[in-house]
Hints:
By secondary structure, the protein is an alpha+beta fold. It is built from 2 helices and 3 strands; from the N terminus they run βαββα. The protein has a 3-stranded mixed sheet with strand order 1-3-2, covered by helices on one side.
Amino acid sequence: MPSQLPDTKDIPWADARDTDIVIPILGPIGSGKSSFLNKYLEAIGDSRRLEVGKNREQPCTSQLEFIVIEGRANLPHPLVNRRIVLVDTPGFNDILASDFKTLVRIRKWFKAS
Ligand SMILES: Nc1nc2c(ncn2[C@@H]2O[C@H](COP(=O)(O)OP(=O)(O)OP(=O)(O)O)[C@@H](O)[C@H]2O)c(=O)[nH]1
Ligand SMILES: [Mg+2]
């Protein structure tokens, strides 16, 4: 798939709560961010998956995507009933979008969410 244009619209997350634990995954294109999240989802028995690139050179994730994992009551104290929000991000070193623009998009998403 071709890379995103720099001003692709990212959909902010409308339902953020103060207690959410938000974990953004950042890194260069093809470094395995989406694959890493898929491994994690598989490990916790969650059937959702993120799109993974055909190879390590071509950009794949073109929009910020977030996966919300519902909180659970049976976790240790600081984690009880807190949701975990995994944020997959477009990679750095994209030939069509400067790293600065990618970072601005990520910052915009966090501000809007
Ligand atoms: N050898 C090897 N390949 C991997 C590993 N993790 C991911 N890949 C491969 O690298 C390619 C890119 O993986 P992605 O998970 O899409 O990488 P990404 O960081 O999300 O890439 P972008 O979305 O483009 O930023 C895919 O073909 C994966 O199969 C790894 O640990 N080892
Ligand atoms: Mg990706």
